[in-house]
Amino acid sequence: MTPEFREFLTQSITGVGMVDGVEIRHPSLKTSVFMTPVYPGFTDSEGNFYEYVPFAVNRSSKQGDLKQEFKFTIQDINEIVAVYVDQIPIDTELRPNVILRTFLYRDGGVIADIADGPYVLEAENITFTSQGCTFTATAQQTNYSGTGLIYTGSRFPTLKAYMQ
Predict the structure, then answer these.
(1) Is pLDDT of 88 > 80?
(2) Total Cβ atoms within 10 A of residue 123
(3) What was the pLDDT predicted at 144?
(4) Lower CB density within 10 Å: C or N end of the chain?
(5) How high is the mean pLDDT of the chain?
(6) How many CB atoms lie within 10 A of CB 28?
(7) How many Cβ atoms from other residues are within 10 Å of residue 104's Cβ?
(8) Which pLDDT does position 129 carry in this prediction?
């Protein structure tokens, strides 16, 4: 074993994993919903308790186009989630906000710092089935409109030196 590899093994942190924590907000809800797929749940550094709800998060397969898209699958609509779903009116135009955080999970159930996120997303295409609920969540578009000014030589004469 090389000395570099031996040093790497002796200094590496053991028992570290990643765990997702999801916060769901909506103006119709009295409080935010905090969920995690880790049983029995955990409390983060801000004092929010993430309750155990079986779900999965699939990140977008495209990583180079700056589009943040996540697919969420809540495996069963249990007593926890169903109570909150009933509080949101069916005819509302407002979409729920989804905030995804990934925490470091250490041995003994200790939650450390945030490893990734928070991603502030908006839920779309919500589908309920007998097995649960699926939806996609994307970040709000911010750069879809221009400034309205076209830089031309007649409008900005100092640009003529850079035009060919």
Answers:
(1) yes
(2) 18
(3) 60
(4) C
(5) 80
(6) 11
(7) 16
(8) 78
CA distance 74 to 51: 13
Burial letters for 124-147: b for 16+ Cβ neighbours within 10 Å, e otherwise? eeeeeeeebbbbbbbeeeeeeeee
DSSP string covering 31-96, please? Answer: S-EEEESSTTEEE-TTS-EEEE--EEEEE-S--SS---EEEEEES---HHHHHHHHHS-TT--PPP
* C-beta separation of 30 from 55 below 8 A: no
CA 54 from chain centre, in angstroms, equals: 16
Say which residues have a Cβ less than 8 Å from residue 86's Cβ, sequence separation at least 6.
Answer: none
Does residue 107 register a pLDDT over 80?
A: no
Q: What is the tens place of the pLDDT at every residue in 8-46?
A: 666 655 657 888 999 999 998 888 989 998 888 888 888
Residue linked to tokens 């090389």: 2
Q: Are residues 40 and 53 in contact, defined by beta-carbon separation less than 8 angstroms?
A: no
Adjacent-strand bridge partners of 116: 102
What tokens does 3 get?
């000395």
- Give 8-15 contacts, CB < 8 A, sequence gap 24+: 14/107, 15/106, 15/107, 15/108
